[in-house]
Amino acid sequence: MLLTMTALALAAQEPPKITITPTAEPHQIAIADGLLHHFDSNDDGKLDRSEALAMANATNEESKRRGGGSVSQAELAEGIDKMFAHDRNDDGLMTRGELIMLVATMPDHRGDQEAEQAAE
Ligand SMILES: [Ca+2]
Ligand SMILES: [Ca+2]
Predict the structure, then answer these.
(1) Backbone φ, ψ for residue 66 (5° rounding)
(2) Contact criterion met (CB below 8 Å) for 52 and 84
(3) Counting ligands in written order, which one lies closest to the CA of residue 92?
(4) Distance in Å, CA 92 to ligand 1 centroid
(5) How far apart are CA 26 and CA 104, in angstroms?
């Protein structure tokens, strides 16, 4: 009975088209979509660990190209573990929603730059 009432109450609400965190901003959603677009190599709409590793390696190479530091394979693996800490249902796959949550919790580099400029 209680379950039925809960289900009815939920059904009465306007269902959101996609489940995203209310704190996610459009540019963060765009980042998550971009990651999927580039690194979802089997096109299932999710990132598995091998795809995440390809993503981490690409990010590392990009950082090297820009003259930034590179990280070791161990650090890459640690980064992927951190990423999959956001795998909410523990299925070993990062869905779009989970990626958006991940991006939303990452430091906003645009903000960082502004803060650095303000500090100068
Ligand atoms: Ca995939
Ligand atoms: Ca998942």
Answers:
(1) -80, 5
(2) yes
(3) 2
(4) 11
(5) 10
Q: Against a cut of 0.70, is the pTM above it?
A: no
Q: What three-state secondary structure class fits 72?
A: coil
Beta-carbon contacts of residue 65 (< 8 Å; ≥ 6 apart): none
pLDDT tens track of the chain, all 120 residues? 666 666 666 666 655 555 555 678 999 999 999 999 999 999 999 999 999 999 999 989 988 999 988 889 899 999 899 999 999 999 999 999 999 999 998 776 555 555 556 666
CA end-to-end distance (rounded Å), the chain = 63
Question: Please, what are the domains in the chain?
Answer: 23-106 (1.10.238.10)
Residue 48 alpha carbon to ligand 1 centre in Å: 6
Among all bound ligands, the one having the nearest atom to the CA of 95 is 2
C-alpha of residue 10 to centroid of ligand 1, in Å: 31
